[in-house]
Design brief:
Number of helices of chain A: 9
Structural class of chain B: alpha/beta
Largest sheet of chain A: 4 strands, parallel
Oligomer: heterodimer
CATH architecture of the largest domain in chain A: 3-Layer(aba) Sandwich
Shape of chain A: globular
Number of helices of chain B: 13
Radius of gyration of chain A: 18 Å
Number of strands of chain A: 8
Mean pLDDT of chain A: 88
Low-confidence stretches of chain A: none
Strand order of the largest sheet of chain B: 13-14-12-15-16-11-17
Helix content of chain B: 25-40%
Strand content of chain B: 15-25%
Number of strands of chain B: 23
Low-confidence stretches of chain B: none
Strand order of the largest sheet of chain A: 3-8-7-4
Largest sheet of chain B: 7 strands, parallel
Distance between the termini of chain B: 55 Å
Shape of chain B: globular
Mean pLDDT of chain B: 91
Distance between the termini of chain A: 31 Å
Order of helices and strands of chain A: HHEEHEHHEHHEHEEHE
């Protein structure tokens, strides 16, 4: 097989898990898989960050201190869960996917995302974070739609992004946290009483999903959580 | 993107979606069997800046710093053509930019630009995505002319007898269709033999490209060429540095960057023609061919030509010039083989063979700089753990400090640099010894050994140096490398051969 990312040839070994159909055939070679850091072990109940990544003093029971502080101000997202640590390898990987436009790459995370979704978001419907029309045209696809599409469950196109803005990644944290009117609700979308999982590629400060979540709650959603490939 | 067809008095032509009437029907260009090319209307007042920018290039719309209206006007008058980025052939898809036809390197996605399932090429995606609805744009009007002020060449160095004979052969080829292989040993001064030929080409208004698979070669040659050709706007192209100025008559480029050219060059020089990844990546060879005009002179440079090239030489399809002697006239250093026992087993237990530590100690004590080549990054880490000290450092392809470390080594701040094969070529440090640890490993091919040995004895002040292979069982590659080096040395003591 050719590795989906580095294009080197690799051999897949058949283990007992394959015989029982537990593992999908990996699309990445062993070296590339070795660079991925899955988020495991103890995590912040709210934002899904691994506790192992920061000093103990920033932890309060099952929350990180960022979340404790944020919860006092009130927030719309009930929890975030991400599959992978946003390390330098994944940064390059996601850049190739998103900015170079290599849509195929995201398929490498299909089975991982399915497993995580089934564990954490079983009763939810998916709402992908939208792009502005200009950005959507420039990129040719919406990465969140491609990610949500891996899960083989219905997705709801409930949001629009009317403003064409600077890339999130080029803004400072303060700019991003002030960003509350980023999205608009698409009238007629049926979110009332529903539990919604917002889908995005990367969760960094949480500002994007927070802004989207608020609008969905305002329109009657019962609960909004967020589900991303990477946790920055 | 989608296009509409618009009727004109010369026939129906294309119009890109942003400029099309809202009521017209839109389709991706992949839906047309043939794209219409409006005939050249020579009374059209074309934009000379667009001409100067475009000559010889084949680009995506996203790469063109001119308004779409300007491009479309030139298209309608026959000065620009839209081309399918990806075509459907009998056997499957084919990328017009990189020549990729490998099924595994195409994928599809639901495309917002054309509202269809759209296939794209994964092989050349680092240059911007080409999908079935992406047009490639070329200049179809008269080409820009090149003129370089005299003096074209400013170089007062002396060529050795072998060099000047090679230089003459290159000079003669310029301006004619033909191919020649310059087989020049490491350190023979092959760049200088090109100067007279390039000067002739520039004087005749021809366009010259020196392409190489390796970015470091472009960066190393660029200042030397700028100095040698003071009145020429030399253009250097490599990943992350692709200028989009007006076309230049002298381009130094990685082979990858040539994906953006088409029928551009009258002279194509490919340096290190055997180097990774050019030698095995057919699409890079396609890129070089596509960038050449049909009648171009093609010159290949190598110290270790591939078996394919040598086979063409034997079949008399390809002319060859040998430069078997280094510019300073001293022979190439012949490698010495030293058995070092089962080094893999040793590393697992956390030590390196005694012969190696003794060699390292001798070098560090003498203060003489050295490279220690190892087969893999894993071995590199293990060996470094055993040998580390203030004067020892390591470097490998993924090392973020790669450039800095090589520079520090050049400046003499590091005495011993442990490295994988990435430094086998091109790095020239005057007084140096070299060892290969784990020489029986398969990454060390005969050509790799010849290149590695070529690092030693480069300067006239210090034409000698040691090359040692530490191994656990002599391989064919080791023996063949030694034989090749000895052959060069005995050839160089004979006459120049034809």
């Amino acid at each position: 097989m050719k590795c989906l990312y580095c294009k080197s040839i690799f051999v897949t070994s058949i283990g007992w898990r394959d015989l029982f159909g537990l593992d999908h055939e990996p699309l990445l070679c062993e070296d590339c898989r070795g660079e991925l850091v899955f988020i495991e072990g103890e995590i912040c109940r709210q934002c899904g960050r691994a506790f192992s990544l920061f000093p103990e003093k920033y932890r309060q029971n099952d929350l990180c201190s960022d979340c404790v502080e944020w919860n006092q101000k009130g927030r719309s997202i009930s929890k975030n869960r991400s599959l992978l640590q946003y390390n330098s390898f994944l940064q390059e990987f996601m850049a190739q996917f998103k900015y170079r436009g290599d849509a195929e790459l995201i398929k490498a995370f299909k089975s991982g995302l399915q497993t995580l979704f089934n564990k954490e978001f079983r009763d939810s419907i998916l709402v992908p974070i939208p792009l502005s029309k200009e950005r959507h045209f420039e990129r040719g696809f919406n990465q969140s739609v491609l990610i949500a599409g891996l899960l083989d469950i219905p997705m709801l196109d409930a949001l629009a992004r009317p403003l064409h803005e600077e890339k999130q990644s080029k803004k400072s944290r303060l700019d991003r946290l002030g960003n509350r009117t980023l999205f608009s609700f698409k009238t007629g979308s049926e979110v009332h009483g529903k539990s919604i999982a917002l889908v995005d590629d990367i969760y960094t400060t949480g500002a994007t999903v927070e802004a989207a979540g608020k609008i969905l709650l305002d329109h009657g959603a019962r609960k909004v959580s967020s589900f991303t490939v990477a946790r920055g | 993107m989608r296009f509409a067809t618009i009727p004109t008095k010369l026939g129906p032509f294309l119009c890109p979606e942003p400029l099309a009437n809202q009521s017209t029907s839109l389709f991706p260009i992949s839906k047309l069997t043939e794209l219409p090319y409006p005939p050249l209307q020579s009374d059209f007042n074309f934009d000379p800046d667009l001409q100067a920018f475009f000559t010889g290039r084949l680009l995506l719309l996203d790469e063109i710093p001119f308004p779409l209206q300007t491009i479309q006007a030139h298209y309608l008058h026959g000065f620009i053509q839209y081309e399918k980025g990806i075509t459907k052939e009998e056997h499957g898809l084919s990328c017009r930019r990189c020549g990729n036809q490998d099924k595994e390197l195409f994928a599809t996605f639901s495309c917002y630009r054309c509202k269809e399932e759209c296939a794209y090429c994964r092989n050349c995606i680092m240059m911007g995505r080409i999908s079935q609805c992406t047009p490639l744009i070329r200049w179809a009007g008269p080409a820009t002319g090149f003129h370089v002020e005299e003096p074209i060449l400013r170089w007062d160095g002396q060529l050795s007898e072998l060099q000047s004979s090679a230089s003459e052969r290159v000079y003669e080829l310029i301006g004619h269709a033909g191919e020649i292989l310059v087989w020049a040993v490491c350190g023979s001064g092959k760049t200088e033999i090109l100067f007279a030929g390039i000067e002739k080409a520039l004087r005749e208004g021809l366009r010259v490209c020196l392409a190489t698979p390796r970015t470091d070669v472009v960066m190393e040659l660029f200042p030397r060429f700028e100095q040698a050709f003071p009145n020429t706007q030399v253009e250097a192209l490599y990943g992350g540095h692709s200028s989009m100025d007006r076309a230049s008559p002298l381009v130094l480029s990685t082979t990858h960057q040539l994906f953006r050219f088409e029928k551009a060059f009258d002279v194509m020089i490919v340096d290190e023609v055997d180097a990774f990844p050019y030698s095995y990546d057919k699409t890079l060879q396609f890129a070089v061919e596509k960038a050449c005009k049909d009648e171009a002179a093609r010159i290949y440079l190598s110290a270790t030509p591939s078996e394919d090239l040598l086979a063409r030489v034997r079949r008399k399809e390809l002319d060859v010039i040998h430069i078997s002697k280094r510019f300073h006239g001293y022979p190439l250093p012949v490698p010495e083989f030293t058995w070092c026992g089962n080094w893999k087993k040793g590393l697992k237990k956390g030590y390196v063979p005694k012969v190696l530590t003794e060699w390292v100690k001798r070098k560090l004590d003498s203060g003489r700089q050295c490279f220690l080549f190892v087969p893999t990054v894993k071995v590199l880490n293990d060996v470094y753990e055993c040998l580390k000290s203030d004067s020892v450092d390591f470097v490998h392809a993924e090392d973020p400090e790669r450039k800095e470390k090589v520079n520090r080594f050049r400046k003499g701040e590091i005495t011993m640099l442990i490295t994988t094969t990435i430094l086998e070529r091109g790095v020239t440090v005057p007084e140096i010894d070299v060892a290969v640890f784990g020489a029986d490993h398969e990454v060390f091919t005969s050509n790799a050994f010849v290149q590695i040995s070529g690092r030693v004895g480069r300067s006239i002040e210090d034409p000698y140096g040691e090359v040692t292979y530490f191994h656990f069982g002599k391989t064919k590659a080791m023996a063949s490398a030694k034989k090749t080096i000895e052959q060069h040395n005995s050839r160089s003591s004979r006459e120049i051969d034809k």
